[in-house]
Structure formats: structure tokens, C-alpha cells
Amino acid sequence: MSILAFTCLGSICLLYLLSFVSMVMSQTFPYSHCPCGSNNTASTKFRDNLNNLFNGKLYDERGNSLSYNTTDGEIPDRVYSNYICRFDFSPETCRNCVNKAIKNIVEQCNGTQEAVLWRPTCMVRYSYRNFFSTLELVPIKYAWTAGNITRPAQFAMILNQTFNDLIERAPLNPSKYAIHESNISDFERLYSLAQCTEDLSTEDCSACLKAAFEKVTADSVQGMQGGRVLIPSCFVRYELFRFYEVPNVVGSPGPIFQPDGEFIKFSLSKYLDK
Length: 274
Ligand SMILES: *[C@@H]1O[C@H](CO)[C@@H](O)[C@H](O)[C@H]1NC(C)=O
Ligand SMILES: *[C@@H]1O[C@H](CO)[C@@H](O)[C@H](O)[C@H]1NC(C)=O
Ligand SMILES: *[C@@H]1O[C@H](CO)[C@@H](O)[C@H](O)[C@H]1NC(C)=O
Ligand SMILES: *[C@@H]1O[C@H](CO)[C@@H](O)[C@H](O)[C@H]1NC(C)=O
Ligand SMILES: *[C@@H]1O[C@H](CO)[C@@H](O)[C@H](O)[C@H]1NC(C)=O
Ligand SMILES: *[C@@H]1O[C@H](CO)[C@@H](O)[C@H](O)[C@H]1NC(C)=O
Hints:
The chain has 274 residues and is α+β, with helices and mostly antiparallel strands. It is 31% helix and 22% strand.
């Protein structure tokens, strides 16, 4: 079931693969990807540049932005880096998530010249190559929310309509995200979100979201009532509960934030329309 290609050797690779399977089951973040082959070793100068980015520059250069990309150093040791938070985050929550992701990526990918790491609601990435404005579809990571779907065929159709809409609208939004809500029964509502990195073109954002939807419709996913697909250029999520904040919804109870910015699952009844 793994779609990840690890270049690690021997027992290290096996360990990684096993833990990946359990991560998917338990939805434990962070997910990181930093192949540990010998050609992914960073120079000392590269590490210094990366430290500059991670010790403030990456988040602070623009300041209070929900996504940003910047570089440090000169070729051949220049580091290209970006981060992205979910569209509905406050700057404080975003910064918190980015700081944790930086800590995680330094722990898990120390010394590599290319890596990407996802926490539940933000992503941090760096590389020796210029990936800005470039569609990047590898790796694809995912986590499903297990649960029985009463009418799987109808659910698949609604997912299809949902993603057709998201794939159409998110790329055209200057902030490159869209949400979609549909009734799937008198009692259940499907909440969905798609977001690309802002530097992508309309076409590339659309291509990334299509790749994400292909993962959603893969055979292994049938019967899952929610899920996330994480790709360096975009991410999607859909659930039977509202996991994002919708601005200006009068009377909405609003989801609670955990310290990390991940939402606590409310009981569904809280979200039934009055
Ligand atoms: C490492 O080598 C592989 C195979 O030759 C190549 O595809 C990859 O881009 C290289 N990675 C780096 C970080 O140079
Ligand atoms: C961020 O990416 C955009 C799009 O490729 C690029 O034009 C811009 O120069 C980058 N920003 C920085 C600070 O490097
Ligand atoms: C990263 O590696 C360097 C050099 O091997 C080491 O000094 C440093 O403590 C490591 N950092 C972390 C967070 O593991
Ligand atoms: C899903 O359906 C199976 C078989 O009908 C049942 O055993 C299981 O308890 C159900 N799980 C949930 C979460 O409703
Ligand atoms: C999903 O939507 C696409 C585009 O509208 C359509 O071509 C396709 O047949 C649909 N797939 C399913 C399984 O309904
Ligand atoms: C969705 O369901 C709610 C509650 O049953 C209802 O008020 C609302 O009109 C429905 N929306 C659509 C688009 O059918």
C-alpha cells in the first residue's frame, strides 16, 4: 500500500516503511520525506544558509504571511525554501506550526540538501534546487479517516462533484484555495478543502489537485469517510465534520484549536443546520 520510495538502505528503510503504515492508521504527524542517499548530503555552507532561514528569515522576511518562499546564500550552496499554512489560520497559529515543522525537519532530515515535512496543518520544504513556481507531485502522502459510508456509490459521486468544483475554483483564487460543502443526507454534510502553494500557475495548481483527487479515488480508499492528500505543491482534505474556520458565519460554533492548530473533532450534531 506504500507509495513512497525511500532510498535508505537495509534495516533503516524497513523501519521507516513499517512506521509509515502505522502513521497512516493512527494519523500521526509529522510526515517527512528526505531520502538519505549519499547524494543528498549538504555542504557546511549549505547548512549555514539553511540555519539562517530556519532561525527566522523564512518566516520573518515577509512577516505574518500564511505562505512564503525565499532563499539564502549563493550558488552552489544556495538554499531554496518555502512554507504554507492552511488558509483559515491566524498568523500566530501559522507561525507556531511552522516553528514546530522546522524543529521536526531539522531532527528528521538533518544534513540533507533536500527535504519536505508536513504537520497536520502546515508544510515546510527546502532544496538545493529552485523549485519555486514549479509543479512538484512527489512525494504524495495521505491519511484516511476510517468509518463506514452508508451509500458508497452516492458518496463517490458527491466526492467527484466536490473535487470537480474545487479543481475549478481553487486555481483561480489569488490565494489558491477553495472550500466546498455538500449535503450527503439529511444528517450528514461533507466539508472539503483544496489549497495550492501560491507561486503555482493556474494550470499547475489544477494539475496538482487532479493528482490529489486521483489518490482519493484509488481503490485503497473505498469506504473511508474522510481523508487528506499531501503533495509538495498542494493539499486536500475532506471530512464529515467542519475542520476549517469559515469567516463571518453568524452563529457558527467554530471548531476548537488544539495548541498545534489542529482541530478537535466535534460531534457531528454540532454542525447540523439549525
Ligand atoms: C540523487 O541521485 C538520484 C539518482 O541518480 C537522482 O535522481 C536525484 O536527483 C539525486 N538527488 C540529489 C539530491 O542530488
Ligand atoms: C518566490 O517565488 C516567486 C515565484 O517563483 C519568485 O518570483 C520570488 O522571487 C520568490 N521570492 C523570493 C524572496 O525568492
Ligand atoms: C545535526 O547534525 C550535526 C552534525 O552532524 C549535529 O552537530 C547536530 O547536533 C545535529 N542536529 C540535530 C537537531 O540532530
Ligand atoms: C462498520 O461496519 C461494520 C460491518 O457492518 C461494523 O462491524 C462496524 O462496527 C462498523 N464501524 C463503524 C465505525 O460504524
Ligand atoms: C467524475 O467526474 C468526471 C468529470 O466530470 C467524469 O468524467 C467522471 O466520469 C466522473 N467519475 C465518476 C466515477 O463519477
Ligand atoms: C443541506 O441540509 C440542510 C439541513 O437539512 C438544509 O437546511 C440545506 O438547505 C441543505 N442544503 C442544500 C444545498 O440542499
